[in-house]
Amino acid sequence: MNTLISDHQYTAIASATGIGKTYNFAGLFHYFLNCWENSIVLTTATTWTQVRSQLWREIRLAHAESRIPLPGNPLQTELELGAKWYGLGISTRKPESIAGFHAKAAVGADVLAAGEDGFELDAEFIEWWAKNREGDAEAPVFVLVDEASGVPDELFLALDGLMTNPGSKMALSGNPLSLSGRHYEAFHPPMGTDLDDWPWETLRISAFDAPREIVDRDWIDHMRRTCGPDPEKNPHYMSRVLGLHPTSSDKALFPMTLLEIAADIVPKFGGRHMGVDIGRTGDKCVAVLTVDGRVASVHAWSPGMSGGDLMRSARIIRKVAKGWDVPARNVHVDVTGMGWGVYDRLWEYSFCVDAVNFGAGPEEDWRDILGHSPPLRTRRQELHWLALRCFQEGFLSVPKDARYSPIWADLTAIERRFDGKDAMIVESKDAYKSRVGRSPDYSDALLCSLSRTNPAKVRFRVLSEKGRAPKARRIRRS
Asked: What span, in angstroms and rounded, lies between the C-alpha atoms of 355 and 457?
């Protein structure tokens, strides 16, 4: 990968998760900065958190662990070797601030003749350096864009203006999450383009291309199981494992890019909530914990069919809620199908949870925060719309953690359409299961956690038998 970038002015890499993209970019940063005097190396990514906490953390680590002592003292997002010789992390939010980064200086091969501690560079390399880089020409600007799928086009327009200096290079790297933007376009030239004139050199790296000590094959197997019987068609598996751009994002309700950006947000809203999806026979029961809008844990178990299994699920829900420190009123249980039976058992324990009826009408429980929803027919469609809006507004976040891969796989596979009245229609659970080969249990549990209705609309008490406490009963809501 490093050789490809060194040999071409424009390079784009689409790769699987965890193969060392950021690590390699840190090495490239030091190579470009230390081998071109008075050069400027700019680094950016989708979010400032990625720039500061991921890319520049690797840059500082590479500087500290370098076999050859490197000059300069790396700060949080800056490494200065001279007044006009530096590397910098930049934000994607202000493209206009990028204009004006140009470098001009000369460099001679004598500065490379010897390093500290008597280390001598390869003579062939020094000869190449003297032939290609010595003189009074303007020094190049190097641009490294990590997680490039989510970087806005406005930033690339600004970065294009920095490529005027001879020898300047731009390299993009990241998971292929989007079907638009510069990163996608680099791999998909317009129809009729003469590829000999196409400026971009591209490279795809799948998880199978990485050594086993870098990408655990057990993780790949886990991803295959998570993404259904035909994982090659699941957008999550395509981008995370195969390094391919997803093919179904035109219908996807939750684009990979949206989830990727939201994953780096740490919401501070909503307290502790637990959503529970009660699975049908052959599916799973799943509980998802959110803390201030960020997924913090997940627990799954088999539901079974008998009444005893309903009692077992009720006991598990109580135990998990206690372990996660979630009060009963913040436990939101799917009551579709067998869910009503579990709900009844919980109320018999005086564990007064909230009922989430996917088949009922919209509740508009987030209206004060997100405003009125578009025309929606059911609570299930409303909760999908709420999840989408919460991701967009920074109220909901699913971390990029292997434990939550089933949630990512479910969300990225959900499809939607609009009817003639512009009402959003989310595919049914049965249609999803028929198409994908499994039920969206994990995403449904996350949706349940967004419910903010009161645990009981109507309740009354009846006299108890002698010697027993009064017994609560519930009138079901439609």
From this structure: 10
Domain span including residue 398: 248-448
Identify the residue with better confidence: 134 or 382: 382
My answer on whether 200 and 290 are in the same domain is no
At residue 333, φ and ψ (nearest 5 deg) are -105, 130
Give the tens place of pLDDT for each residue, 81-108. Answer: 988 889 999 877 655 555 555 544 333 4
Domain assignment present for 367: yes
Instruction: Please give the mean pLDDT across all residues of the chain.
Output: 80
Buried b (16+ CB within 10 A) or exposed e, 74-103: beebebbbeeebbbbbbbbeebeebeebbb
Residue with tokens 């864009």: 145
CATH number of the domain within which 293 lies:
3.30.420.240
What would the mean pLDDT of 400-422 be, rounded to a whole number?
81
Q: Please tell me the predicted confidence (pLDDT) of residue 1.
A: 60
